[in-house]
Specification:
With 358 residues, this protein is α/β, with parallel strands linked by helices. The chain is built from 14 helices and twelve strands. The protein binds iron/sulfur cluster. Iron/sulfur cluster binds next to loops.
Amino acid sequence: MEDWVQQLQNSVNTLDRLKAVVNVTSEEEEAITTLNTKWGTTPYFASLMDPDTPDCPIRKQVIPSMKETENRYGMPNYLIWEENRDTGEIRPDCIARQYHDRIAFTVTDICATYCRHCFRKELVLDRKIKLRFDLEEGIAWIREHEEIRDVLITGGDPFILSDQKIEYLIRKLREISHIEMIRFGTRTPIVLPHRITDGLKKILNSYHQVPIWVNTQCNHPKEITEKTARAVFDLLSCGVNVGNQAVLLKGINDNVETFRKLHQKLLAVRIRPYYVFYCEPAPGIDHFRTPIEKGSELIRDALRGHTTGLAQPMYVIATNIGKIPLMPDYYIMEKNEKEYILKNYQGIYTTWPNMPES
Ligand code: SF4
């Protein structure tokens, strides 16, 4: 049996298995035994948890918390709103659409790790929203919609599907002449790097004409290991670029030092920081949410000017009408007929000539 399948079969998803890895607190035990929610992770990712520190950033993403019962700001049926499902356009359950030329194709609700902050919590963790994941229905819809040029295959985690299904999906999408690129959203390079097998590499490698992009989710520098580095290198060697979509999480990555380290370490293993998402108002995740301004402040104070431009993600809030960038806006301090007054990351001013369009 392949390593990645073994990892999934031995998922740390019972109290006893968790107790074999960390010293479980009474609060964690109460949440595990009382909350009706799917939880768990791979033995590999669990091995990165600090056994004696309940505040460990990996523990907080993996182990349920009683705080999930608090919900002042979460919106019920959040996913339906955020993925713009409740509109006039009739689409299969597996197709979410916010833009004219691209869609998200949801192919499973299974994950290697059930992240406590997941914006799809109602679907993936709490199973209160049910959707039908019919690949044929999705492919047929995409085929009929010639304006769609870019498909994001998502879940759950689509790399949990078998090699055969992944190969089938890529092949079918590639046969559609209006599809110019395929993206996968998968946390496996971080939580199950074993998934990047020779078999999967062979599948990904076979496609040159319709490029494949992978975006993963890494939220803390502790999540990056030699195994991650290898998995990313292997993906790149198949012509697959790897980006990161972090989530801004209170008590996990919302401080300057961690935020900078995260983005530097991502680049050090060849993952390009792509987005940092504001933690969305799905129900039961209030405890992960910072003020909205926090992300722009972190971009300004931890990244801009402090590390290479390659490590600069776009900070966005994902809404039903698409992503809205919330970048720091301190650069142009003043503009007059003659010049612009600009400020840099250190608060130092300079001027730049105002050159009218000719
Ligand atoms: S891997 Fe993605 S879909 Fe699965 S629980 Fe984590 S954030 Fe949600």
